[in-house]
Amino acid sequence: MLNLTRDVLISASREAVQQYLHDLRNIAEYERKVELVQEVSYPDSQNGFVSVTGRIMGLPWRGAFKMEFTRDGGYRTEMVRGPLSRLSGGFHLRPVSGGTIVTYQEQVQLPWLLRPLGCILKRWIGRHVETRLDAVKEGAERLNRRLQLEKLDAER
Predict the structure, then answer these.
(1) Other C-beta atoms within 10 Å of 91: how many?
(2) What is the dihedral of CA 119, 124, 128, 129, to 10 degrees?
(3) How far apart, in Å, do the first and last CA atoms of the chain sit?
(4) φ and ψ at 73, to 5 degrees?
(5) Sign of CA dihedral 14, 70, 123, 28
(6) Quick count: other Cβ atoms within 10 Å of Cβ 96?
(7) Is 156 exposed, middle or buried (0-12, 13-18, 19+ CB in 10 A)?
(8) Which residues are CB-neighbours of 5 under 8 A, at least 6 positions away?
(9) What's the confidence (pLDDT) of residue 125?
(10) How far apart (Å, rounded) are the C-alpha atoms in residues 97 and 113?
């Protein structure tokens, strides 16, 4: 099992980061392996479901994920259908002076054929996680700026 954890400081309120992450259509913006979000549903206020298609290492794939929204504003996710036997992860939010620290954790169960490549794949997946966090940072900060401008316009 590969375990990865990365952090990023986002110059946006926790509420803006939460709003960005909870809009599951945004997954295609920050998840490089996803080309199309096919279905998004919210069975209740604490859970979400998304099915996607995309490419991993150039190969087409389909997947479905259940999301459990957490009290801190992030979510935990687990693959319920897809090419890996186990893939789970999540975003955790912590407000700090000047923004929000977002921690992303991912656990991947590699197929037995790929296990000898674990060290190489861990670095490769780590780079993808960092790219994902950079995209979340950009998207959440963009949303935060838009929300601040809307608030200023409403006050006029």
Answers:
(1) 25
(2) 10
(3) 54
(4) 105, -10
(5) negative
(6) 10
(7) exposed
(8) 103, 104, 105, 106
(9) 85
(10) 46
DSSP-derived 3-state class of residue 55: strand
pLDDT, position 83:
84
CA–CA distance, 17 with 114 (Å, rounded to integer): 35
Alpha-carbon distance of 140 to 156, in angstroms, equals 25
- pTM of the complete model: 0.91
Q: Which two tokens stand for residue 92?
A: 């955790």
pLDDT 10s per residue in the chain (156 long)?
A: 889 999 999 999 999 999 999 999 999 999 989 999 999 999 999 999 999 999 987 899 999 999 999 999 999 999 999 987 789 999 999 999 999 999 999 998 877 777 777 788 888 889 999 999 999 999 999 999 999 999 999 988
Question: In degrees rounded to 5, what are phi and psi of residue 6?
Answer: -140, 150
Distance between CA 63 and CA 48 in Å, rounded? 14
Closest residue by Cα to residue 10 from 146, 139, 151:
139
